[in-house]
Design brief:
The mean pLDDT is about 95. The chain has about 120 residues and is α+β, with helices and mostly antiparallel strands. It has helices spanning about 5-25, 25-30, 35-40, 45-50, and strands at about 55-70, 70-80, 85-100, 100-105. The protein has a single domain, classed as Nuclear Transport Factor 2, Chain: A. The protein is globular and about 45 Å long. It is built from four helices and four strands; from the N terminus they run ααααββββ.
Length: about 120
């Protein structure tokens, strides 16, 4: 598959996941996690792990993506609310190819997730 097509797929999944995260919090993001992450991370665990992270108000764009085999490392720009109003922040999300889709293997804060 050409890399630009894979980049479009990753961007699409990132946009859906960020939208779900913005709409319903960690529960929305949970549906986009890779099976190997879910094996070690419950919905409650994800909510707890991400509690200190700002919940995005929405997806702005994917600024870059790099592929390494079946893995992708993407820079995602999101809108977040802070004390001074809304600002754009860039975070790094990692994905793994899962069948005909891409699943999240890492978002900031997830390293604290457990069952």
């Amino acid at each position: 598959m050409p890399e630009d097509e894979r980049a479009r797929q990753v961007s699409g999944v990132a946009e859906l996941a960020a939208g779900a995260y913005a709409a319903v919090g960690a529960d929305g993001l949970y549906d986009y996690l890779a099976p190997e992450v879910i094996a070690n991370c419950s919905k409650h665990g994800l909510a707890t792990a991400l509690a200190s992270q700002p919940v995005p108000e929405g997806f702005v764009r994917m600024s870059s993506v790099n592929f390494d085999g079946d893995n992708a490392r993407a820079k995602i720009v999101q809108r977040v609310q802070d004390g001074a109003g809304t600002k754009e922040v860039e975070v790094e999300w990692t994905f793994v190819s899962a069948g005909d889709s891409w699943r999240l293997t890492h978002v900031p804060g997830i390293e604290g997730c457990s069952r």
